[in-house]
Specification:
The protein is of the alpha/beta class and 339 residues long. It has helices at residues 9-18, 24-36, 49-58, 130-144, 163-174, 194-203, 218-224, 233-247, 265-275, 300-312; strands spanning 2-3, 59-60, 65-71, 77-82, 88-96, 99-103, 107-108, 126-127, 150-153, 186-190, 208-212, 251-257, 280-286, 317-319. Helix 4 packs across helix 5 and helix 6 (194-203) runs parallel beside helix 8. The protein binds S-adenosyl-L-homocysteine.
Length: 339
Protein backbone atom coordinates (compact mmCIF):
# COMPACT_ATOMS: atom_id res chain seq x y z
CA UNK A 1 0.00 0.00 0.00
CA UNK A 2 1.08 3.54 -0.69
CA UNK A 3 1.59 6.21 1.95
CA UNK A 4 -0.77 9.10 1.23
CA UNK A 5 1.77 11.52 2.77
CA UNK A 6 4.24 10.70 -0.02
CA UNK A 7 2.17 12.72 -2.51
CA UNK A 8 2.46 16.35 -3.47
CA UNK A 9 -0.87 18.13 -3.92
CA UNK A 10 -0.70 17.96 -7.71
CA UNK A 11 0.18 14.26 -7.60
CA UNK A 12 -2.73 13.51 -5.29
CA UNK A 13 -5.08 15.45 -7.56
CA UNK A 14 -3.94 13.21 -10.38
CA UNK A 15 -4.50 10.07 -8.31
CA UNK A 16 -8.04 11.17 -7.46
CA UNK A 17 -8.78 12.01 -11.05
CA UNK A 18 -7.77 8.48 -12.01
CA UNK A 19 -10.22 7.18 -9.40
CA UNK A 20 -12.98 9.20 -11.05
CA UNK A 21 -13.02 11.74 -8.22
CA UNK A 22 -12.92 15.52 -8.41
CA UNK A 23 -9.37 16.90 -7.98
CA UNK A 24 -10.48 19.41 -5.31
CA UNK A 25 -10.92 16.43 -2.99
CA UNK A 26 -7.13 16.38 -2.81
CA UNK A 27 -7.22 19.84 -1.27
CA UNK A 28 -9.70 18.64 1.34
CA UNK A 29 -7.49 15.65 2.10
CA UNK A 30 -4.47 17.94 2.43
CA UNK A 31 -6.42 20.09 4.86
CA UNK A 32 -7.10 17.04 7.03
CA UNK A 33 -3.57 15.70 6.79
CA UNK A 34 -1.50 18.84 7.29
CA UNK A 35 -3.79 21.31 8.97
CA UNK A 36 -6.03 19.21 11.19
CA UNK A 37 -3.38 16.47 11.40
CA UNK A 38 -5.90 13.65 11.78
CA UNK A 39 -4.71 10.06 12.22
CA UNK A 40 -7.40 8.20 10.27
CA UNK A 41 -9.36 8.50 7.03
CA UNK A 42 -12.56 8.15 9.09
CA UNK A 43 -12.00 11.59 10.53
CA UNK A 44 -12.15 13.20 7.07
CA UNK A 45 -15.83 13.92 7.50
CA UNK A 46 -16.38 16.13 4.47
CA UNK A 47 -15.51 13.21 2.18
CA UNK A 48 -18.19 10.68 1.33
CA UNK A 49 -18.11 7.39 3.22
CA UNK A 50 -17.49 5.69 -0.08
CA UNK A 51 -14.43 7.80 -0.87
CA UNK A 52 -13.05 7.24 2.62
CA UNK A 53 -13.37 3.46 2.08
CA UNK A 54 -11.67 3.69 -1.30
CA UNK A 55 -8.83 5.71 0.19
CA UNK A 56 -8.40 3.11 2.93
CA UNK A 57 -8.12 0.40 0.30
CA UNK A 58 -5.39 2.23 -1.63
CA UNK A 59 -3.39 4.16 0.95
CA UNK A 60 -2.04 4.09 4.45
CA UNK A 61 -1.91 7.21 6.59
CA UNK A 62 1.77 6.49 7.28
CA UNK A 63 0.97 7.20 10.90
CA UNK A 64 4.01 6.45 13.13
CA UNK A 65 3.69 4.92 16.57
CA UNK A 66 5.61 6.39 19.47
CA UNK A 67 7.74 3.59 20.91
CA UNK A 68 9.52 5.72 23.46
CA UNK A 69 9.57 9.32 24.56
CA UNK A 70 12.20 10.88 26.81
CA UNK A 71 12.12 14.41 28.14
CA UNK A 72 15.26 16.26 29.15
CA UNK A 73 15.41 18.67 32.05
CA UNK A 74 15.92 21.46 29.50
CA UNK A 75 12.59 20.63 27.82
CA UNK A 76 14.04 18.77 24.84
CA UNK A 77 12.06 15.66 23.89
CA UNK A 78 13.48 12.66 22.08
CA UNK A 79 11.09 10.34 20.29
CA UNK A 80 11.70 6.82 19.12
CA UNK A 81 9.26 6.15 16.30
CA UNK A 82 8.13 2.85 14.88
CA UNK A 83 8.23 3.50 11.14
CA UNK A 84 5.82 0.62 10.55
CA UNK A 85 8.20 -1.88 8.91
CA UNK A 86 9.90 -3.14 12.04
CA UNK A 87 12.49 -0.34 12.05
CA UNK A 88 12.74 2.60 14.39
CA UNK A 89 14.20 6.11 14.11
CA UNK A 90 14.83 8.99 16.47
CA UNK A 91 13.55 12.55 16.21
CA UNK A 92 14.25 15.41 18.60
CA UNK A 93 12.11 18.40 19.58
CA UNK A 94 14.10 21.35 20.88
CA UNK A 95 12.45 24.27 22.61
CA UNK A 96 14.08 27.65 22.14
CA UNK A 97 12.90 31.13 23.10
CA UNK A 98 12.25 31.87 19.44
CA UNK A 99 10.11 28.76 18.97
CA UNK A 100 10.22 25.00 18.57
CA UNK A 101 12.77 23.30 16.36
CA UNK A 102 12.62 19.72 15.25
CA UNK A 103 15.61 17.64 14.25
CA UNK A 104 14.46 15.04 11.74
CA UNK A 105 16.08 11.86 10.46
CA UNK A 106 16.35 11.30 6.73
CA UNK A 107 17.53 7.68 6.60
CA UNK A 108 17.35 4.53 8.68
CA UNK A 109 21.04 4.27 9.44
CA UNK A 110 23.81 6.16 7.65
CA UNK A 111 26.51 5.23 5.14
CA UNK A 112 28.93 8.08 5.80
CA UNK A 113 30.91 6.49 8.62
CA UNK A 114 31.94 9.69 10.47
CA UNK A 115 34.11 8.50 13.34
CA UNK A 116 32.60 10.77 15.99
CA UNK A 117 28.91 10.11 15.28
CA UNK A 118 26.72 7.53 17.02
CA UNK A 119 24.63 7.07 13.88
CA UNK A 120 27.69 5.38 12.38
CA UNK A 121 27.44 2.36 14.65
CA UNK A 122 24.36 1.02 12.90
CA UNK A 123 24.09 -0.58 9.50
CA UNK A 124 22.33 1.35 6.77
CA UNK A 125 18.85 -0.04 6.20
CA UNK A 126 17.07 2.30 3.78
CA UNK A 127 16.06 5.82 2.87
CA UNK A 128 13.02 7.38 4.45
CA UNK A 129 10.33 8.48 2.02
CA UNK A 130 9.24 12.12 1.95
CA UNK A 131 6.05 11.12 3.77
CA UNK A 132 8.11 9.46 6.51
CA UNK A 133 10.23 12.56 6.88
CA UNK A 134 7.25 14.87 7.31
CA UNK A 135 5.45 12.37 9.53
CA UNK A 136 8.09 13.06 12.20
CA UNK A 137 6.94 16.69 12.30
CA UNK A 138 3.26 15.83 12.23
CA UNK A 139 3.56 13.26 15.03
CA UNK A 140 5.50 15.61 17.30
CA UNK A 141 2.97 18.40 16.72
CA UNK A 142 0.11 15.97 17.42
CA UNK A 143 1.78 14.66 20.55
CA UNK A 144 2.73 18.01 22.10
CA UNK A 145 -0.05 20.16 20.70
CA UNK A 146 2.69 22.71 20.01
CA UNK A 147 3.52 24.39 16.72
CA UNK A 148 6.91 23.67 15.19
CA UNK A 149 8.51 26.65 13.53
CA UNK A 150 11.92 25.32 12.48
CA UNK A 151 13.05 22.09 10.90
CA UNK A 152 16.66 20.90 10.80
CA UNK A 153 17.80 17.87 8.82
CA UNK A 154 20.37 16.89 11.41
CA UNK A 155 19.02 13.60 12.73
CA UNK A 156 20.06 10.16 11.57
CA UNK A 157 21.28 9.90 7.99
CA UNK A 158 22.92 11.97 5.28
CA UNK A 159 20.16 14.08 3.69
CA UNK A 160 22.05 14.45 0.40
CA UNK A 161 22.35 10.66 0.14
CA UNK A 162 18.52 10.67 0.00
CA UNK A 163 18.37 13.86 -2.01
CA UNK A 164 15.14 13.39 -3.95
CA UNK A 165 13.00 12.42 -0.99
CA UNK A 166 14.51 15.16 1.16
CA UNK A 167 13.81 17.82 -1.46
CA UNK A 168 10.29 16.49 -1.87
CA UNK A 169 9.82 16.61 1.90
CA UNK A 170 11.11 20.20 2.03
CA UNK A 171 8.64 21.21 -0.69
CA UNK A 172 5.85 19.60 1.31
CA UNK A 173 6.96 21.20 4.59
CA UNK A 174 7.13 24.54 2.83
CA UNK A 175 3.87 24.33 0.82
CA UNK A 176 1.10 26.68 2.05
CA UNK A 177 -1.33 23.76 1.92
CA UNK A 178 1.26 21.40 3.38
CA UNK A 179 2.90 22.14 6.72
CA UNK A 180 3.40 25.77 5.73
CA UNK A 181 6.78 26.30 7.38
CA UNK A 182 8.87 28.92 5.57
CA UNK A 183 11.91 27.64 3.68
CA UNK A 184 14.04 30.09 5.65
CA UNK A 185 13.12 28.09 8.74
CA UNK A 186 14.45 24.86 7.26
CA UNK A 187 18.12 23.82 7.49
CA UNK A 188 19.75 20.97 5.72
CA UNK A 189 23.08 19.66 6.95
CA UNK A 190 25.47 17.63 4.84
CA UNK A 191 28.76 15.88 5.40
CA UNK A 192 29.72 17.26 1.99
CA UNK A 193 28.31 15.39 -1.02
CA UNK A 194 29.58 17.95 -3.52
CA UNK A 195 27.39 17.15 -6.58
CA UNK A 196 24.27 17.64 -4.49
CA UNK A 197 25.42 21.07 -3.34
CA UNK A 198 25.40 22.09 -7.01
CA UNK A 199 21.98 20.48 -7.51
CA UNK A 200 20.51 22.31 -4.55
CA UNK A 201 21.92 25.60 -5.82
CA UNK A 202 20.07 25.03 -9.10
CA UNK A 203 16.82 24.28 -7.25
CA UNK A 204 16.98 27.60 -5.50
CA UNK A 205 15.01 26.61 -2.40
CA UNK A 206 15.80 29.33 0.14
CA UNK A 207 16.58 26.93 2.99
CA UNK A 208 19.80 27.18 4.99
CA UNK A 209 22.65 24.95 3.92
CA UNK A 210 24.93 23.69 6.68
CA UNK A 211 28.22 22.00 5.91
CA UNK A 212 29.84 19.65 8.41
CA UNK A 213 33.43 20.77 8.01
CA UNK A 214 35.06 19.83 11.34
CA UNK A 215 38.67 20.00 10.15
CA UNK A 216 40.88 22.29 8.11
CA UNK A 217 43.20 19.88 6.34
CA UNK A 218 42.47 16.78 4.31
CA UNK A 219 44.43 14.40 6.45
CA UNK A 220 42.57 15.30 9.61
CA UNK A 221 39.19 15.56 7.89
CA UNK A 222 39.59 12.20 6.15
CA UNK A 223 40.38 10.61 9.50
CA UNK A 224 37.22 12.02 10.99
CA UNK A 225 34.99 11.79 7.91
CA UNK A 226 35.73 9.18 5.23
CA UNK A 227 33.61 11.16 2.73
CA UNK A 228 36.52 13.59 2.53
CA UNK A 229 38.46 11.02 0.51
CA UNK A 230 35.87 11.36 -2.25
CA UNK A 231 35.22 15.09 -1.89
CA UNK A 232 38.26 16.78 -0.36
CA UNK A 233 38.15 20.19 1.31
CA UNK A 234 39.16 22.21 -1.78
CA UNK A 235 36.33 20.73 -3.88
CA UNK A 236 33.87 21.10 -1.04
CA UNK A 237 34.71 24.75 -0.45
CA UNK A 238 34.64 25.52 -4.17
CA UNK A 239 31.12 24.06 -4.30
CA UNK A 240 30.21 26.27 -1.34
CA UNK A 241 31.59 29.38 -3.03
CA UNK A 242 29.64 28.53 -6.18
CA UNK A 243 26.51 27.90 -4.11
CA UNK A 244 26.81 31.31 -2.47
CA UNK A 245 27.47 33.04 -5.81
CA UNK A 246 24.44 31.37 -7.34
CA UNK A 247 21.97 31.77 -4.44
CA UNK A 248 23.37 34.73 -2.56
CA UNK A 249 22.67 32.75 0.60
CA UNK A 250 24.87 32.46 3.65
CA UNK A 251 26.29 29.02 4.39
CA UNK A 252 26.64 27.71 7.90
CA UNK A 253 29.77 25.66 8.65
CA UNK A 254 29.58 23.20 11.50
CA UNK A 255 32.78 22.57 13.37
CA UNK A 256 32.67 20.06 16.23
CA UNK A 257 35.53 20.67 18.62
CA UNK A 258 37.37 17.60 19.83
CA UNK A 259 40.02 17.86 22.49
CA UNK A 260 43.61 17.86 21.19
CA UNK A 261 42.38 17.10 17.70
CA UNK A 262 40.99 20.18 15.98
CA UNK A 263 40.68 22.71 18.79
CA UNK A 264 44.07 24.45 18.66
CA UNK A 265 44.54 28.07 17.69
CA UNK A 266 46.47 26.80 14.70
CA UNK A 267 43.23 25.11 13.52
CA UNK A 268 41.35 28.38 14.00
CA UNK A 269 43.99 30.16 11.92
CA UNK A 270 43.63 27.61 9.13
CA UNK A 271 39.86 27.90 9.29
CA UNK A 272 40.08 31.66 8.86
CA UNK A 273 42.29 31.17 5.82
CA UNK A 274 39.82 28.73 4.28
CA UNK A 275 36.71 30.80 4.90
CA UNK A 276 38.05 34.32 4.45
CA UNK A 277 35.71 36.45 2.36
CA UNK A 278 32.93 33.88 2.21
CA UNK A 279 29.33 34.75 3.11
CA UNK A 280 29.20 32.31 6.00
CA UNK A 281 28.76 31.62 9.66
CA UNK A 282 30.60 29.10 11.82
CA UNK A 283 28.66 27.01 14.27
CA UNK A 284 30.97 25.54 16.89
CA UNK A 285 29.68 22.34 18.46
CA UNK A 286 31.22 20.92 21.62
CA UNK A 287 31.73 17.36 20.40
CA UNK A 288 29.76 14.74 22.25
CA UNK A 289 31.73 11.66 23.12
CA UNK A 290 30.12 8.51 21.82
CA UNK A 291 30.49 4.99 23.13
CA UNK A 292 33.97 3.68 22.27
CA UNK A 293 34.64 6.95 20.45
CA UNK A 294 38.16 8.32 20.18
CA UNK A 295 37.13 11.97 20.34
CA UNK A 296 36.17 13.82 23.46
CA UNK A 297 34.89 17.29 24.18
CA UNK A 298 37.18 20.31 24.23
CA UNK A 299 37.21 22.33 27.41
CA UNK A 300 34.78 25.26 27.57
CA UNK A 301 37.77 27.52 27.82
CA UNK A 302 39.20 26.22 24.56
CA UNK A 303 35.87 26.44 22.80
CA UNK A 304 35.39 30.06 23.83
CA UNK A 305 38.96 30.92 22.88
CA UNK A 306 38.40 29.33 19.47
CA UNK A 307 35.19 31.31 18.98
CA UNK A 308 36.74 34.59 20.08
CA UNK A 309 39.70 34.09 17.79
CA UNK A 310 37.42 33.55 14.78
CA UNK A 311 35.28 36.55 15.67
CA UNK A 312 38.31 38.77 16.13
CA UNK A 313 39.49 37.81 12.66
CA UNK A 314 36.31 38.54 10.77
CA UNK A 315 34.60 35.13 10.84
CA UNK A 316 31.23 35.14 12.58
CA UNK A 317 31.18 32.20 14.96
CA UNK A 318 28.78 31.07 17.65
CA UNK A 319 28.75 28.10 19.99
CA UNK A 320 25.77 25.82 19.58
CA UNK A 321 23.80 25.51 22.77
CA UNK A 322 23.79 21.96 23.94
CA UNK A 323 20.32 20.54 24.41
CA UNK A 324 19.15 17.15 25.55
CA UNK A 325 22.55 15.64 26.39
CA UNK A 326 21.05 13.96 29.49
CA UNK A 327 18.74 11.89 27.27
CA UNK A 328 21.32 11.31 24.51
CA UNK A 329 19.47 13.65 22.21
CA UNK A 330 22.38 16.02 21.51
CA UNK A 331 24.38 16.28 18.28
CA UNK A 332 25.72 12.97 17.10
CA UNK A 333 23.96 10.94 19.76
CA UNK A 334 21.06 9.68 17.68
CA UNK A 335 20.97 6.14 16.46
CA UNK A 336 18.64 3.47 15.36
CA UNK A 337 18.06 1.79 18.69
CA UNK A 338 16.57 -1.61 19.11
CA UNK A 339 12.87 -1.41 19.49
N1 LIG B 1 24.74 13.71 7.88
C1 LIG B 1 24.53 15.10 8.05
C2 LIG B 1 23.50 15.47 9.11
C3 LIG B 1 23.51 14.72 10.41
S1 LIG B 1 24.55 15.18 11.71
C4 LIG B 1 25.84 15.79 8.32
O1 LIG B 1 26.83 15.13 8.45
O2 LIG B 1 25.87 17.02 8.33
C5 LIG B 1 24.24 16.79 12.24
C6 LIG B 1 25.50 17.46 12.77
O3 LIG B 1 25.96 16.87 14.01
C7 LIG B 1 26.64 17.35 11.80
O4 LIG B 1 27.35 18.55 11.73
C8 LIG B 1 27.50 16.28 12.44
O5 LIG B 1 28.82 16.32 11.98
C9 LIG B 1 27.35 16.64 13.91
N2 LIG B 1 27.78 15.57 14.81
C10 LIG B 1 27.81 14.25 14.59
N3 LIG B 1 28.30 13.60 15.66
C11 LIG B 1 28.59 14.53 16.58
C12 LIG B 1 29.10 14.48 17.91
N4 LIG B 1 29.43 13.32 18.48
N5 LIG B 1 29.24 15.64 18.56
C13 LIG B 1 28.90 16.81 17.99
N6 LIG B 1 28.40 16.92 16.76
C14 LIG B 1 28.25 15.80 16.05
Amino acid sequence: MKNIKDYHLEELKQELKEMGEKPFRAEQIFQWLYNEKVETFDEMTNLSLELRETLKKHYTMGDFHILKKQESKDGTIKYLFDVLDGNAIETVLMRYHHGNSICVSSQIGCKMGCKFCASTGIPFIRNLSSGEIIEQIIKVEQDTGERISNVVFMGIGEPFDNYENVVKAIEQINHPKGLNIGARHISISTSGLVPKIYELAEKNIPCTLSISLHATNNEKRSNMMPVNRTYPIEELLQACRDYIAKTNRRISFEYALAKDNNDHLEDAKQLIKLLKGMLCHVNLIPINKIENGQYSKSSNENIMRFRDYLNEHGIVATIRRELGADIEAACGQLRRKNR
